[in-house]
Structure formats: C-alpha cells, structure tokens
Amino acid sequence: MKFQIEDVTVCFPYDHIYPEQYSYMVELKRALDAKGHCLLEMPTGTGKTIALLSLITSYTLSKPQGAIKLIYCTRTVHEMEKTLAELKLLHNYQVKHLGPAAKILAIGLSSRKNLCVNPNVLEANNRDSVDAACRKRTASWVRALSAENPNVETCEFFENYERTASGAVLPPGVYTLQDLRAFGKEKGWCPYFLARHMVQLANVVVYSYQYLLDPKVAGIISKEMQKESVVVFDEAHNIDNVCIEALSVSVRRQTLDGASRNISRIEQEINRFKATDANRLRDEYKRLVNGLALSGNLPGSDSWLSNPALPDDILREAVPGNIRRAEHFLHVLRRLLQYLTVRLDTEDVEKESPISFVASINNQAGIDQKTLKFCYDRLHSLMLTLEITDTDDFLHVQTICDFATLVGTYSRGFSIIIEPFDERMPHIPDPVLQLSCHDASLAIKPVFDRFQSVVITSGTLSPIDLYPRLLNFHPVVSRSFKMSLTRDCICPMVLTRGSDQLPVSTKFDMRSDPGVVRNYGKLLVEMVSIVPDGIVCFFVSYSYMDGIINTWNESGLLKDVLVVGYVSSFHLVFLMILLFQEIMQHKLVFIETQDVVETTLALDNYRRACDCGRGAVFFSVARGKVAEGIDFDRHYGRLVIMFGIPFQYTLSKILLARLEYLRDTFQIKEGDFLTFDALRQAAQCVGRVIRSKADYGMMIFADKRYSRHDKRSKLPGWILSHLRDAHLNLSTDMALHIAREFLRKMAQPYDKTGSSGKKTLLSQEDLEKMDGSGLQERLY
Amino acid sequence: MASGQVSKRVKFKSSVKDPGTPGRLFLTLERLMFKPNSPNSATKLNMEFRFVKNHKYTKEGSNKAPMLNLTSSQGVSYIFEFESYDDLHVCKECVGKALSKTGETPKPIDTSEVPSEQPSTEELLLRMNMLRENGELQKLHMRFVSDGILTEAEFWATRKKLLGGNFSKKSKQRTGLKSFVLSDTKPSTDGRTNKVTFTLTPEIVREVFAEKPAVHQAYLNLVPRKMSERDFWSKYCRAEYLHHAKNANAGAAAAAEAAEDEELALFLKPDDILASETRRKIRCVDPTLDMEADEGDDYTHLPDHGIVRDGSKEITESQHEHYRRTLSQELNRHAAVVLQGTPIDEEQLKDTQTVAEALKLSKQGENASNEETDMNTNQDRLSRISKMIEIDDLQASSDLPLAPLSIKDPRDYFDSQQATALKNSRDTSIGNDPVKRILSTEESYASLRDSISHVKTTGLINPIITPEAAVKVLSVLTHNISSTKYDIGKNHGLSFLDTLPNTSKEELLYHWTSLQELLRHYWSSYPITTAYLYTKVSRLKDAMSKIDSQLQELKESVQSDLRHQVTLLVRPMQQAIEAAMQHHDAELQKRSARSGERSNGYT
C-alpha cells in the first residue's frame, strides 16, 4: 500500500497497517525533519522494524537532493539477518511498485569470520585466528614478498578484488551475509573487503552496535560515514550496558604472563630487524617524531583494531620522546607489567579512581600519564613496522596497552577495581584488575555528535525518561506507543504460590528450598500438558538453571536411596517422582548452555520440534544470549515462564561502583536502578512471544515479589495494561485454569480488523479517509 | 484360478497413448487391483467390479497390443496392456464372470444423496476406499451423513487434505521415537552389596548408539574381536556411572580412570564424531538464530575486554573440563536424536549387533545424501525465512504447507488426555493410581512387618529372616517403585479405560470421536455469514445436545465404583459442549440485538 505522511509518500509492503505503526512513522518523520535524535518505545509484535525501514527508505526517495544514508545497528548477527530479510521484502515491493528508481544498495557487514570465503582461512576455528590468518595472506608486506617469492601464500579472492580495484562494486540490491558470500564466490572477490568498501557507498548499512559504539572497531569501519545519516539502534533497551562494556578492560594473571611473552617476542623481532634492516626502525622513529600519521593512509588489509579511546580524546600530537625508540617502549611496557603484577597480588578488594591509579604508576613505575595514553598507538605502530601478522598471538599485550591508554585518557566515569577472587568462589584465587566504565554516555557521545539523527527504539524503554539521562542526550521526540489489540491476545499472570499454596520465589534465602524447586517443577509439568507447541522458560542464572534441572532429574535417584532407608516415607517421595520424565512425556526438552554452538543447534532443533507439531520446552537464562535476541513468536512460544526476578548479582563490586556513580551523577537510587534493570530484562524475556496481532501467548511471572507494586509497576505499559487485578496473586491450579480458558478463547475465529469501535488494522482507504490528525485522536 | 484370483503382469494406462505404468493386475470375483512395480509410483488402483460398467478388448490377430479396457460407471476408462494374448484371455474370462455376478447383486450405495458440487470420480473412489479402510471413519460417516446432520460434501470438506495427493504417502511416515530418556539407566542397587546393576534392552542400545556415535563406533571396532559384548557394556556402564557420580570432582575421577584404561577413555572422552557432525550442522543452521556468527562479530568481548566479573558470567571450577559432560548437553542431544527419528524399525530391534549394523548402514546412506541435501536445505531455509519475516495479519494469508497430522489411532490421544485427568486426581489422593500395584506393595510391606513381629515374639534366631525372603521383599518394593514411575502415560495397556467394561469403553470412545467431528464442524462455521451456515449450526447444536444427554446416561449407567473416573473422563467433553452452547447463545443474543438496532435505525 502507498500513503502520504505530510510530504512523503510511504511505500509499505503490506495491504494493511496497524494504527500504531502509522503513528510511529509520523513521529519518526518529525524527528527526521527536525534533524534531531529520538527515542521511541513500541511493544514487540507491532512491526517496528518494517515501519522504520519503510519510512526511512521512502523519506530518502522523496528527497532526492540530499540522499540520506541509513545506518541500522542491531545487537547481534542473527538480528542483522532478520532485518535484512525484512528489508529485502520491502525492497522487492518498492521496486515492483515504484520502478527501478527505488533501487537501493543495502548490505550487512560483519567480521571476517562470517564473511570470508577462503577455505584455508576458514579452517581457523575462532574469530581472532581467522583475522590473523587473513592478515597473513593480505598484509601489504606479505603481498610484496610474494611478488618475489611464489611460495608465499596469498589469498586469491583478495588478489582478484585488488586487481579489479574500483571496478569491484556490488550492483544495487539487498545483500545478507549469505548473499555477500555467494556473490564473492561467484566473482572471485573477497566479500569482506568488498563489503567494507561498499559501506561507504551503500544506502543502507546494517551492522552490529559495536561498529559504531566500540572505538576499537568504529575507528576502522565507521570513521568515514557522512553526517547526513540516520543511525538506528534497534532493541536498544540494553544500550547503556553495551556502551560501558565497550570501554572496559580487565587484566588477569594470564594476561600479564601472555603480555610478557609477547614482549619477549617483540624484542627478538627488533633484534632481528636491527641485524638485517636497521633502517626500518630508524624510519619509524622519524615518523613518530612528526606525529602519528598512521590513520588514513594504511591499506585496508593492514588495519588492525583501532585505538580503544574515543576519537575526540585521542591526541593528535607527537609521541612522547621516551617511547619513540622501540627498545625504550618495551622497557616502559615491562615496568608497567611489573607494576600491575604487584598490584594484582593483593589480599583485599581495592577500589581506586583512575587519577590516583595513574599517580601511583607515576610514582612507582615512573610512567607518566601522557606516556600511558600513547601506549596503544605506539604498539600499533611498532607491530606494523615489525610486520607482525599473527596478531591473534599478541592479544595479551594489546589488552595491556588498551588498558594503559584508557586509564591515561579518562579521569572521570571510570574506576579501577582489584579483586583477589570471585565472591562466589572465595577458595579459588583468581585476581582480576578491572578498569570499568560507569558512564554510558561516554561511548555514545561521538555518535550523537556526528550524525544528524539517532533513533533509539525498542519494545521496552520504560521508564522512557531514564534513557536520556543515562545516555546524556536531548531527544526531539520521545514517545511510548501503546498496542491496540483486536482481542486480548496476551495474557500476563503473576504466580505467587505453588500447588501447595506455599509462596514461590528466587529470593536468595528461598531459591534452594526444595519446596520452591518442586513447586516450580509442578508448574511446568502442568503447563506442558495443556499448552500446545512451544514453551519457553527463563531462569535467573545458569547456575540456578543447572541446579534446578539436576534436582528435577535426580529426584528419582533420591527416591531409590530413601526407600532402602525408610519404607514409610514412601508416599512423600512419591510426590517427587521424576518431574523431568513427566515433562518429557509431553514435550522435548532443549536447554541453553554456555556453549554457543550447542545452544544454536538446540534452538534450531527446538524450532523444528515446534514446526513438526511435536512441541518442545526451551530452558533459557535471562540476560543470556537467547534472551537477548531470539524471538519465540507464534507456535515457537505460546507460553513464557519467568522463574524469579532476574536481578543482577548485587554483591558484585563493579555493579556497586556503577550504582554509586549513578547515584552521585544522576541522582538515581540504587534500588530503583536495580529493579528497573531486573524488570526490563524480565519484560524483554517475556516480550518475545508476540509477533503480530494475530499471534497470541501467555506470560507467567513466577515469583511472589512480582505482586508487589513497586516491582510490577516497572514493567512496560503494554504488559501492565493486560495484567488484570485478578491475575496478580495466583497459585498453580488457578493459573492452569486461566491458561485453559485463554487457549480456548484464542482458538476461536475473530474479526481481524477489530470490530468494537476501534480499528486495529487500517487499509489504504482508511488512511486516505482520515487525515493524520484525525487518526491521532482516534488512537489516544 | 480355483480361488478365483488371477494375477498378471500388465502396464496400466489412463489412455491409449499413455506409455503406461508397469505393475501387476490382481483380479478376484469382487474387485480388481493394480499394484505398480515401483513402490513410489502414485498410480494404484483398487476398485470393485460393481463400479465397472463395460469392458472392451483388442482382438487377437490385429496389429495392436493385447489390451483390456474397463469403463467405470462414471465413464472413466482403465486400460491394461498385457504381455501376451494368453494373459488377456484369462483376464477377459475372469472379468466377464465378475461383471455378470455383480449385475445380480443389488447396489448397496445410496444414490439419493446428491452433494452440492459433484466431486470427480477419482475423489469418490478415494472416499470409498477411505471409508473401507478406516472403520472409525465409516462409523462417523454412517452416524452423521446418514442421519442428515452433515451433508456428504460437508463431511468430506474437512478431510480434503486426506483426499489430496499425498494421502498415499501417509503410511510412509516414519514412526517417531518416544520422548523420554530410556538410556538414562539409573543403576539399581540390591541393597545388600555394593553391586550396581544396569539393565540394557535393544531399545536402550539403539538410543545409546544414536546419541553417542563414538560408542557406536567403538562397538563396531571392538566387539567381538577385541572384547566380548558383555565386557564392552560393563565398561560403558562404568563410564556412565563415573559421569553420574554426583561428587564435586567427578571430572577429576573420570580423568584419572581414563588415564589408566584406554578403552574406558573412549567412553569418557568427548565425542569426536559428534563434534564433527556439529560442525557440519552449524553451517546449515538458520541464520536468523545463528548465535555462533554473533560471537564472531563481537569485538567488545576480546579476551579480557568488556566487564568480566559483574556476576553475570558464570564460573566453572574444574580444570578437568575435558571430561565434564553436563546433563544439559545430554538432554539436548537426546532431544535432537528423538526429533531426527530413527531409521531402525521395530523388527530390527533384536540384539545389539543388528542394531549396530543397521545404524551403520543408515548412516552411510545419510552421508551420501548429505551433500545434495545441504544445497536443498539452504534453499528451503531462505524461503522459510522470508515467510517467517512477513507479518501475517497485515497480508492476505498465504497457505503454508502443512504436514498432515497422522494419528495412528485417535484413541491414543484420548488416552493421554485421560491420563492427565487421572494424574490430577492422583495429586489429591496419592494412593489410587495403579490400584493393584499399591496393594502388592502393602502386602509385601505387611509381610515384612509380620516377620518383624514374629522375630519380636520368638526372639532373635540366626538368621533373623531368611535372606531369600528379605531379598524378595526388597526387590518387590524397589521394582514397584521404579516401574510405577514409568506407568504414567507410558503404559497405555494398564490405563483406566481398560478397566471399564468393553461396551462402555467403546461407547465412550465413540462419543468422543463423534463429538470431535461435530465440534470441528461447529467452530468452523463461525462467524455465521449465510443462512446456510445458520441452519448447519443449529443442526449441529441439536446433535451435540443429543450426545450430551447420552453422555449423561452413560455416566449414570456405570457401576458406582467406576463413576468417579468416568466423570473425570466425560467432563472435558461436556465442558466442550457447554462452551459451544454458550457461544451459540451469546452469538444469538448479539445477533438479535444487532438486528433490533438496525430496525430502530430504519424506522
């Protein structure tokens, strides 16, 4: 369908549109017109992504004079694929209805690991080895060497790509990673470098958050994006965490040992060069005197992870004299390592500000702040000079230099925390020195400054006024949309008691109570027998999930042991009989583990089990990888059970330091932030069941604490508005009854366009009939 | 010939020019059947002679091939080409005899029902076949169509999928595996010694081999040349026992044992075959959930970057990671195998050796076809993603391909439902589950007590109880416990339904299937848009209320001790009827209110 929003003709690839999608587009357009940033919350399952993509592409088409580039950031690669698939759908529709003028170039960009097509490089099993294997074949000096010596291996895909030079372009279209690989294979060009080159020319670029937020990556990939770009952060409810993680580094014993090995190797290399090619080091020295002119004129294949500090904070001046000579620099690094080793060797937890830490480095190791700041660039330059290609072996020394540069650059918003062991395992010494960033606004600031419009959107951004404070920006539009439902297709419930009417909770003192564990198990057993297709369970942590699964599984073993002892306790034990086997009788069980490969396969199988009608249960962890970005829509998730409230580990020193910082700078209370953070995770977990208004799903919050107003009220509005008072304090049997009724109701046919007064589905005529303002009134 | 059966090699053609399908023609006095030589050919024929109206054949001596042409009462002709004229003659005679015979018998088919749209002959034939093959369906058909509650067309409309082309394929659907873990062989101890016993059946062995390819491989390599079957499995069980030993340093113990025993290490080590299979599978995983790719793109979490210790990451303490195998991994693997199904049929489940060989063969086949399927799955995947991406209610729906649900016996479904109902009742009162078993437990317990009191009165003699008696008591106790847990739902043979008298059981099931049929029709006719639907709904409503009253009668007619259970079984049915009635009434009210409104508006 095609319709007007003010002066823009929007081309939308469906016959109908939800009213909230329409208003979302209206608000978004306002922000684009004002060339400002915006913050939009719209429930999942209302087609945010497609609304956003259609508006922005249509907006660009209607303004041919100033072409706007869309930079779409997703948190994960699989979300990137999903976005590109939606974009493909849209693009096909637009080309069909608007003709070839609507053709655009859209690409997804990922690391070498996901884009490389060279089988020899791909043999390496992790990302860093793939990167290094690529560099070994494509670095400029390697290629120069291979011109003389045919035995030196190069990458034919890269050579072909280089030979074609500017002729290597992608024709317009939408390219997923798979498409890029296929195209690269067909043409014999390296897809990775092709994609990196095309990023500058594409109309739409889809990539991961880090490519903009993490200065190490953004420095190479995104430094040349034009100002007239719209940057979208989708599913941005965790954006503050991404920002602080991008600027945090930690140092362990292994890091120090590795770094000192690295330094010895560098020393050997230096000696070798001194013997064979002393000029090279002298040249480098001269270059450093003139200032770091590294950036810009390096061939793409030589570039390496960039400076960990933000671009505005990097000094554009000459490297301090004391580290210009390679040997001197190594000496400084050695002293730094020694200092860090001493500091790590502590009995107590220490917390320090960067300023005092730098001061003590200066006192005890004689390294001043400016020297620290240049560590990373100096190392980078040295490694290039030494022509080191196996960068994956040098990660440790790189970490140390990252740390030094960050600690030398930032004096506020960070703290240094040294812990001798993990709180949860005090008997195992594992000292860590962490430089942790508390201020999320630091990493995102350059993005807000550089681009004219930044859109932050997600299904859960409540309370919506908190994000501008956390990220320190001023949105021109900040709106939270409700969901207009044709029928009550979501059914949230708060379960406070088990089948024996005793309270359930994952509160610290209750979580390992066998009664609670059993009640949780009974709840699941009952639910698997009545809910069709897929069920997803979220637990508060891996360890809790493992514990519960083991208990459920072994309650049978326990029984065997008991019988020999006391015959009379037979009946008691009977209750505990193999909860797990009972679950398995109805559905297959799949579990998220810490191994991503295994989890991915488990998910794939889970979907297959739901597809073929067998039905399955997926056990997952809140804050885990699955909760972060996998949809459990339609038959993939008819019920989500959230066992407990996913609070952060409150004894963590880093968390405490961050809370303190938030309190001092933003006047956000610790308790409020913790609840906010836990509830946004919970909402995120359960919010993935709905994909459209035709879909339906239930959500069970199984913890007595959810019934308290201060906790519950932090849930996003679209869940709260469906949470009836009668569903606030349920026991297992009541929940079971409600679930049966709900499922029966949902199975009835209904009128999709919404009958009673309010339209929940608009056709083209509907939109034409009413002008924008009329619609707004109808909705709110 | 004597029995009236004739079978000949023929080619079956739908027209004279058709090259034909080679196969065999079977003729009896009542019917003719054609079976193609290649089993996956769709052309099959099985019809009764009473539908054959006419037959023609080529004359001997003419240049044409020997052919027989049968014309059915609907005017469709079936042509068979024979290998020789002799064959043709034999069949000609047989057909002639059969035709003259059927001419005398009265036609049992009721020609009075005229469906609203005339279905094609093939479809009619198919319907007839289905009714014949499926007694359940025939009963339903009799009950509803003959009584005029449903028309012929309505009855078949809901079964279009069955009548569709893939009906013939249905029987080829592989039987699935049961979901629960068989090989989770909990060791049973006899209570006297430290001896631990594991029980293995061919079914369990199949599961073990399928889930742990390394064990399978080891079995093929070692047994029987290097070690005996018995040794192999005791080694295996030892390894399992080590894995399950629930102490803190299970990993360490396993590592230590593995270092000493080369063969044992085979079972304790991570499965290499599995790992390579995983690597292959991860490459064709759906990219919209590929979290592995995600890890490859994550530069924030370079080693030692990002936040390490804020409590969100987990910690593992053992340095013997290599030997640790978690329950989660096992469960995932198990579920994957169940989902994949097994190529081994029940007949092959004789002994370990055959199971191992059969699995090996099937695997080889799989590997060969993997190459091509990889390409195909790629395509499938892409089209599936694009379908998944669409928002369904914004668009006129595109019909997704459905795999027909094939429930071998609808009663199984009923059974499982009633198992749930019974389970609920069990929660309230534990004792009444399998009545007989509890009794025997109590008996043995009582006898144990008897002997204890006997000891008390007579004093301690040596031995206190005869060891045989003690063992008997314990083994009965333990046996009952480990078997009751599997009774829940698994053992349909012992379900409550079977304790009912046969007639009431049949009646119950019959009501259940008919109610399902009615409800299906009922709900599918909403929203009521035409007068036709309106009358249909009221017809259905009447029929349902009839069933409701019949159920009530049934409930009252059973013996009092069974009544509670029967009530439990009947309740979901009655609830369903009630819901339908309520919906009907509400709809009626709405309708009348609306029409009232409209008339107000007009006046």
TrEMBL record, chain A:
Comp. bias regions, Polar residues: 753-763
Recorded GO MF terms: 4 iron, 4 sulfur cluster binding; 5'-3' DNA helicase activity; ATP binding; damaged DNA binding; hydrolase activity, acting on acid anhydrides, in phosphorus-containing anhydrides; metal ion binding
Protein's UniProt keywords contain rRNA processing: no
Enzyme class, broadest EC rank: isomerase
Coiled-coil residue spans: none
Top-level taxon of origin: Eukaryota
Main subcellular location of this protein, as a coarse class: nucleus
Region spans: Disordered: 750-780
PROSITE patterns named in the record: DEAH_ATP_HELICASE, HELICASE_ATP_BIND_2
Stretches assigned to the Helicase ATP-binding domain: 7-285
Compartmental location: Nucleus
Family, as annotated: Belongs to the helicase family. RAD3/XPD subfamily.
Protein name per the record: DNA 5'-3' helicase
Source organism of this protein record: Salix koriyanagi
Higher taxonomy: Eukaryota, Viridiplantae, Streptophyta, Embryophyta, Tracheophyta
From TrEMBL, chain B:
Stretches the record annotates as Disordered: 101-121, 582-603
All residue ranges annotated as the BSD domain in the record: 192-244
Keywords attached to this entry: Nucleus, Repeat, Transcription, Transcription regulation
Subcellular location: Nucleus
Bias kind Basic and acidic residues: ranges: 582-597
SMART domains assigned: BSD
Family: Belongs to the TFB1 family.
PANTHER family for the chain: TRANSCRIPTION INITIATION FACTOR IIH-RELATED
This protein's name: BSD domain-containing protein
Organism ancestry: Eukaryota, Viridiplantae, Streptophyta, Embryophyta, Tracheophyta
